[in-house]
Amino acid sequence: MTDHSHTDTHHPGPPRFVQVGERIVDPIFVDMAHGYDRDNLAPTIAGTPDRDPDNYDRTDFTWRLVAKPDGSSTGLEYAPTPYSDLTQYDEGLHNTVEFQPDAPGVYRFELDAPDGTHELTIEAFPAPGGDDEVQVFDIEGEVAGGAGNDVGGPPRLELVGEFDPDAGEFVVESNPELASDSFAVEDDLTVSFRPHDAASLSVEDVVVEGTTARIPVEAVDEPTSLFAAPFDGVRVGATDEIVLRPDGEIEYPNRPPEWLDDAVMYEIFPRSFASEDGEADFQYLTEKVDYLAGLGVDIVWLTPIVPAWSAEIDTPPGGPHGYSTGDYFDVADDLGTLEDFEAFVDACHEADIRVCFDLVVNHCGWTNEKWQDTIAQLGEQPEDPYAFPDVEAWNTDSKYFDWFDRQTTASEHDVAPAQTSFFNVRLQPNLNYGNLALREHILAAVDFWSEYVDAFRCDIAWGVPHSFWKEARRLTREKDAEFMWLDESVPYLTSMGESEFDLHFDTTEFMFTAHAVARGERPPSDLLDAIEARDEHGFPTYSRILNTTENHDESRIYWEAKAEGHREDPAQAERAALAAAFTLPGVPFLYYGQERLIAEYGTRRESPFADRDDRFDDLEKDPYKRAFMNWDLDDLVDDSDEADTEARRAVEERLEFVSGLVDFYHESDVLGPNANLVREGYRTDATDDVLAFGLEAGDQKRVVVINFGPEPRQVQLRPSVDTTDLFTGDDLAVDSSDDAVTVAVETLAVFETDSLFGQGN
């Protein structure tokens, strides 16, 4: 457990490393048109967070920019709206501020708080530019469009420390690396080191020699965080953190928990985990823990279990998804009680399964009592049962009025200052992280649920300021060093790994590529590009990224192959995609029902808008994405005994395949996020179906072959590859010659080899 002397103060957090032109901004909306990736400078909540705190007074916190580089004319900003024609409503509390550096150098801030004055440093590097010196920095913190081809990805580093007792100093190596597609050279790499501003260790005490830092132990009189960021002359990479202790011990608070390296994650849409509507509750889920244990999964992610409008009405749009929180400190009545949930968690723990809670804090729900308290008068209820009445007057005296994002003007439905909502869905009002009391309320929810569960999956993580995530993760890690944080950020952002999240979604690269391969639109080798893109985006080697093929927000990959693509055997395409998810470097992931062919034999959910032309929801694209589980193998089809027998066989074979895949993953010393991917040379006539690659973990090497096609495919490998498949135990050789052995692969084969020979070598 990491204990820092500054964790129980209002200090605004660790130093920042940014580039000129980069905004530390919390925009009025969070979508691609109005701003993406939120942040601000904010005081930390001191002490135990209160569920229902009073608002902080404007005079409680005062920010000052006390030093800036020569040539800078920037200043502090309050509620700017840089990406919108609409103006953000601001009550003037100003407990948080926003900022944009306009010159390279060091900026120093002071925060006067009830517990004293705190300092914060921001180091700004030059703006990224192309060959023509045109700035290419954009609102996502990524290089925009084709400009990325001119500069490549950002560098990365990994801090490794050692205490030298003879010299009486800590030696911290930063190990910087250029991105594989970078146009920079090694000599361009520099590393900036900065201690936490609340520590007694000063930046002058840190002696930097190249990319190594040396710190005398006498300068470390308390557990002290040291931060570092790499710069390649064009782009700044993700920040890492190391903690130095006076006794010479060293900690790495920015590392994922070790248990994640051998974990298989399983997502459950709770109200669909039964065979029919209304059947599933926490007691029902508890009864299924033995099934989950038999499947071999290590962590179960439940989509939201809190009270929510979508779970309280008949045939809700998208199903009873629960992503519109009515109460952050309770569970939904239809699922049971908090005690029932605790019993489910206990049963999971007894089976060595961790539980992941879905934390939805970019927005809440229309039924949330604090949101309702801000409404003084509503118009008539619309005829459409899925619409909400207009707001004709606001209760501006409500203590919660400033807890929600608002625009200064009226909107189509609301008088000024109108609400803003997640992607304009009125059901989901946006929360205002510029209000310190709101931050404390949400932090109290984090504190509350972390007493029950082992991990958080954070919905719309890019819609919540980085400053909050850093504070929230630190709170849970001080209670449990093994607590895990998973972000939903689409596309992924390396900045989410800066002492914030341990595990990251990979929707735009891996999942979308897997869908395209399953549809038959892209070659399977593109999955290797998706894995290698993680390095090009600047993810450090210790980062952990999910290999997901589907989830509750995306179409079932089987449905993609069957309804949207032209694969002859969609079930085989799905099997192959799962094989890729488990064997390529990353953390494997299952969405409930994949192991039972749910998209073929489950009971679909119907959209309430199926007969309407003016409304639609995402179930209309794929009605099986939140289908009911097909538990009863005696009731899979209604056609005939022969069809029922075939369906039973198909489901049992799929379950056996997935269970075997999970077991094989756990037993392998090579598979997992630490393996190195090698583009192993091979030959085949079925390039549209076959994926082949090498894996290297220490002295052990493997060649993996995966077949998306409906029939076994032949692949020629180098003669040094042992043709015995480690997955099935069968020898798959069908031919051999002086320069190759030929194997026939049905779905997945893993071969041992004493060497790897990458394409192009």
Structural class: alpha/beta
CATH topology of the largest domain: TIM Barrel
- Classified by CATH, the class of the largest domain is Alpha Beta
Strand order of the largest sheet: 13-14-15-18-19-20-21-22
Number of domains: 4
Q: Can you tell me the residue ranges where pLDDT is under 50 for at least 5 consecutive residues?
A: 1-6, 130-149
Q: Helical amount among residues, as a percent range?
A: 10-25%
Distance between the termini: 46 Å
> What's the CATH H-level superfamily name of the largest domain?
Glycosidases
Please state the CA-atom Rg, rounded to the nearest Å: 27 Å
Number of helices: 13
Strand content: 15-25%
User: Can you summarize the main beta sheet?
Assistant: 8 strands, parallel, barrel
Query: What is the mean pLDDT?
Result: 92
Structural description of this entry:
Residues 267-658 form the Glycosyl hydrolase family 13 catalytic domain. This is Alpha-amylase family glycosyl hydrolase. InterPro entries: GH (IPR017853), GH13_cat_dom (IPR006047). With 761 residues, the chain is of the alpha/beta class. The chain has 4 domains: 152-255, Immunoglobulin-like (Sandwich), CATH 2.60.40; 263-364 and 436-665, Glycosidases (TIM Barrel); 365-430, no CATH class; 676-752, Immunoglobulin-like (Sandwich), CATH 2.60.40. Helix 8 packs across helix 10 (557-564).
Core attributes:
single chain, alpha/beta, Immunoglobulin-like, TIM Barrel, 4 domains, four-stranded mixed beta sheet, 13 helices, 29 strands, 18% helix, disordered N terminus
List the helices and strands and how they pair.
Blueprint: E1 16-19, E2 62-67, E3 105-113, E4 116-125, H1 148-151, E5 160-164, E6 169-173, E7 190-195, E8 207-209, E9 212-216, E10 224-231, E11 240-244, E12 250-251, E13 265-268, H2 282-287, H3 289-295, E14 299-302, H4 338-350, E15 354-360, H5 369-372, E16 375-378, E17 391-394, H6 436-449, E18 455-459, H7 466-479, E19 484-487, E20 503-504, H8 507-518, H9 526-536, E21 544-547, H10 557-564, H11 570-583, E22 587-591, H12 598-601, H13 641-667, E23 676-678, E24 690-697, E25 700-707, E26 713-717, E27 733-736, E28 741-745, E29 748-752
Parallel strand pairs: 1-4, 13-14, 13-22, 14-15, 15-18, 18-19, 19-20, 20-21, 21-22
Antiparallel strand pairs: 2-3, 3-4, 5-6, 6-9, 7-10, 8-9, 10-11, 11-12, 16-17, 23-24, 24-25, 25-29, 26-28, 27-28
